[in-house]
């Protein structure tokens, strides 16, 4: 077994340890409740923890499978996210072919390019080629009604659900001196730091949150976000042994990723508010949809990728 | 042989269900009823041939076993594959809408209700190819409600299928399909056919999920 695999196994076991503690905590709280009384907050918490079990198992398994496992997992996440996004966007029958191309050509091609490591192409394939070609396909069907809305929303869906998500597995392509095949661990680092930050933001926001960042949009508070970014930096420091960043670098990268991620989820919340929905879908019990779960990772991934590329390769 | 056919029908039914879930992530929204086995008539909007399989796919197993879609015999008996899928996989109540037939549709429907089956029906009669959300309802739903007043009539809205597969397109889009079940309605005492059908149509429209675009 290689060092990388041992480390992944350690991280997975560590995450399961945390989940066991969280599950235990929930069960203790439940046991202390009056019989017959149902606490909705506790119920939501338990459903979420159960979903977390599934997610840690999936991500851990994918990482243990190596490159292919991570590619397949995130390609599937992209598909699910794109499906959620395009269900809510403005579209007409004239867009049918361009939407079909988005699902069945653009998405798989992007992951093929990431898989082949063609970093010049996967960085521009959606922002340039899909951006220019899909509106042409829509225009050929000759329906100008709300045209700009339709093509802009489709492009947004592709950027968020495919381009950004694919930058998580793209981290494996970064060629960092002295880091070798361990770039797989960057995927684990990014996902863990950002998701921990989210979890703690929720916790601190409830406990000490006072000043809302964007009232009427999201319950996120400045206090919650600051505490969570601080904690994410701490987690980053603790996990610095799996990164090429060193302690200070790991803290800076973790803090940046977590901060961008939290503001990213504000953007995603705005889109949901505009469409009048609470969640993107109901595929993950207690969490909503894939976009709800991944929103912060989605925003953090390309930034994390490019910062790492700029400073460490 | 009969056993083999039944087995094949079950496998085929499961495949349809898994396919629908994998592509459209179809899900049920139990807004007005609980997902419990109870005799009901699910009346739904009809925009695509996939409507009925979608409703069928979201029902839990115990409900799926007792539900029978009411469907046109001319469609489902056209070839051997359909004649297997319609009557044996979905256990359809096949009705012949031609006026000259002896075997009246309503008799077969009432007979199915008296056997304890639940039904899926499309009260618009035909697939809705217009821009209106619903076509005017045919009298069948009213007649069922009068003949068997104790049965719950459940408005069932199938959302997004027109975008998943607009008419004239070949490739289905994998968008999320939602099936919303509303509160059951019954024919009120002394209610006229037209009043009831209007109320039923409104009840069905009320299940449409609100998405602003």
UniProtKB/TrEMBL annotation, chain A:
<keyword id="KW-1133">Transmembrane helix</keyword>
<feature type="transmembrane region" description="Helical">
    <location>
        <begin position="55"/>
        <end position="82"/>
    </location>
</feature>
<feature type="transmembrane region" description="Helical">
    <location>
        <begin position="225"/>
        <end position="242"/>
    </location>
</feature>
<dbReference type="GO" id="GO:0005886">
    <property type="term" value="C:plasma membrane"/>
</dbReference>
<keyword id="KW-0548">Nucleotidyltransferase</keyword>
<keyword id="KW-0808">Transferase</keyword>
<feature type="transmembrane region" description="Helical">
    <location>
        <begin position="94"/>
        <end position="114"/>
    </location>
</feature>
<protein>
    <submittedName>
        <fullName>Phosphatidate cytidylyltransferase</fullName>
    </submittedName>
</protein>
<feature type="transmembrane region" description="Helical">
    <location>
        <begin position="184"/>
        <end position="204"/>
    </location>
</feature>
<dbReference type="GO" id="GO:0009273">
    <property type="term" value="P:peptidoglycan-based cell wall biogenesis"/>
</dbReference>
<dbReference type="Pfam" id="PF01148">
    <property type="entry name" value="CTP_transf_1"/>
</dbReference>
<feature type="transmembrane region" description="Helical">
    <location>
        <begin position="154"/>
        <end position="172"/>
    </location>
</feature>
<feature type="transmembrane region" description="Helical">
    <location>
        <begin position="248"/>
        <end position="271"/>
    </location>
</feature>
<keyword id="KW-0472">Membrane</keyword>
<keyword id="KW-0812">Transmembrane</keyword>
<feature type="transmembrane region" description="Helical">
    <location>
        <begin position="120"/>
        <end position="142"/>
    </location>
</feature>
<dbReference type="GO" id="GO:0016779">
    <property type="term" value="F:nucleotidyltransferase activity"/>
</dbReference>
UniProtKB/TrEMBL annotation, chain B:
<dbReference type="Pfam" id="PF01553">
    <property type="entry name" value="Acyltransferase"/>
</dbReference>
<keyword id="KW-0012">Acyltransferase</keyword>
<dbReference type="GO" id="GO:0006654">
    <property type="term" value="P:phosphatidic acid biosynthetic process"/>
</dbReference>
<feature type="domain" description="Phospholipid/glycerol acyltransferase">
    <location>
        <begin position="40"/>
        <end position="161"/>
    </location>
</feature>
<keyword id="KW-0808">Transferase</keyword>
<protein>
    <submittedName>
        <fullName>Acyltransferase-like protein</fullName>
    </submittedName>
</protein>
<dbReference type="GO" id="GO:0003841">
    <property type="term" value="F:1-acylglycerol-3-phosphate O-acyltransferase activity"/>
</dbReference>
<comment type="pathway">
    <text>Lipid metabolism.</text>
</comment>
<dbReference type="InterPro" id="IPR002123">
    <property type="entry name" value="Plipid/glycerol_acylTrfase"/>
</dbReference>
